[in-house]
Amino acid sequence: MMHKEMIAMLLAGGQGSRLGVLTADMAKPAVAFGGKYRIIDFPLSNCINSGIDTVGVLTQYQPMALNQHIGIGIPWDLDRNEGGVSVLPPYEKSDTSEWYSGTANAIYQNLNYIDGFSPDYVLILSGDHIYKMDYEAMLDFHKQNNADCTIAVIPVPMEEASRFGIVVTDDNKKITEFQEKPEHPNSNLASMGIYIFSWPALREALVSLKDQSNCDFGKHIIPYCHKKGERLFAWEFNGYWKDVGTLGSYWESNMELIDLIPEFNLYEEFWKIYTKQTIIEPSFLGASSTVSKAIVGAGARVYGEVTGSVLSAGVIVEEGAVVRDSIIMKNTVIHKGTYIEKSIIAQDCKIGANCKIGVGEEAPSKLNASIYSYGLAVIGNKSIIPDNVTIGKNTAIRGVTDSEDYPNGALESGGYIIKAGEEA
Question: For the whole model, what pTM was predicted?
Fold first, then answer.
């Protein structure tokens, strides 16, 4: 029987609906980040840097991009004979085909996988945060306190505390109470959704709550353990941590990478972030190009002007085109004379010549004002934009569009074009 001290279970199932058209055809953890990475590279790299060589990745929504990206785990050195990385989609039971209904239910469906390693500890992670963390330091804290469960927490401004699950602790960091999005918080320590459990305690809780619908860690497992009088502790993290769950925070955290002294450093030798590199050609800057304060991915070719932007691999910016404060994903082509500002353009798009994108006065989105805000123009995967059109702010486009879709050559601020057969 194989024995691992600690294995990780990475919850990567999320649809990430608040990322709008960016996740219409891929799971949120597969979304590009920082010109070279995908969001899931961060927790995977944290695992290998923390000495964890066994990771189960639980997928369900649109997992193809994720499965292709992870493969057998070579970039993260997770192609192991014993352990390594395993992609664990929900499997059909003989009587009912069952999706994962909640975060804890997903783990429960994989009890046999975990038991196969008879671990002492199980680390639960989610696939949608950008951060660097040493899980080994957290495990040491868990052992010192002889804890049944340790929750990673991060201090947040008191006025923002009501947006999070908050933990209240005593002087020894032992958790005394939980407050789920409290109106009047008693502490500013927010749960990061990162847990270390002693496996017997977690296993017992999962089995006891197996019939709980939408069984979830924050809502069910943790309160159950707490009620049982188990030892729960809070481990405080003070590094950079960004939930990239909204278009605004996604855009912001990409922009923070190109600050003069980035708050989050991708260039450190010490704690590398690994990824699958499919494009290996160097990038090329043409004679007429000007590039400043930008990340330019492998194989990208720039002949125009790029400033304050993050360009993924294989992007082409033609002569006279200007890209400002924007994120352009893999293999997208921006044709001559087009001006782009504060936009997020997904992969494999073709943007016509002499367009203006992300310009004009702001207006609320008619598609979904809570998702498409922040003044961003957002264009989904494989979209095509014709020549000579103007696209305003808080806009959303997905699919192959032509000039007839733009009355008077424009998509006004707040407008959207989602082609038939495409989802928003």
Answer: 0.81
